[in-house]
Each structure stands twice: as C-alpha cells, then as structure tokens.
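W.,

You were right to be curious about this one. When I first looked at the sequence I had no strong expectations either way, so I just let the prediction run and decided to look at it fresh. Below is the sequence, 87 residues in total, followed by the output.
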Amino acid sequence: MYKAGIRITLRPSILDPQGKAVHHALENLGFDDVDQVRMGKYVEMWIDTDEEAEAERVAREACEKLLANQVMEDFDIALEPVAAQSA
C-alpha cells in the first residue's frame, strides 16, 4: 500500500484572491515580513497496491480527472509505502 501526498497549487499566472485576502489579514496581524501568500490544497490518498508505478498512475489519474483543474492548477505527488493497517 502507498500513501500519496498530493499538493495542488494555482499556476503562477492565475490570480489568487484567497491568498491575497490571507496576506492582507496577516499584515493586519503584524506579520510585516510576509511578502506573498498563495493558497492551495493538500490531499492524502491511500492506494492499495504493492507497485509504486501503479500507485503513481492512480494518483496522477485522480488528479487529472477530479482533484486538480488542469487549466488553472498544477499538482505534485509524493508517494510513500505504508503498512495496510496504518491507513
């Protein structure tokens, strides 16, 4: 079994109003050293296979078909083997 950690972020060319709002709120709280904020999503997915290549395929296909909007978002997948009972 593999656990896929999937990080989904807006492409740099896409405006991020949520990130802008969070940045403004941080400035109001005195976090003057924060230069920019970009918001995204993090997904953990447990994939029941013993093959790393198959886990990568499943995670990538899930991102391409559902989890990420490929017009606006990029995604990174990090896989780690896990014991079945830890899921």
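Here's what jumped out at me. The chain has one domain: 2-86. And, maybe more interesting for your project: The mean pLDDT is 95.

Coffee later to discuss?

I.
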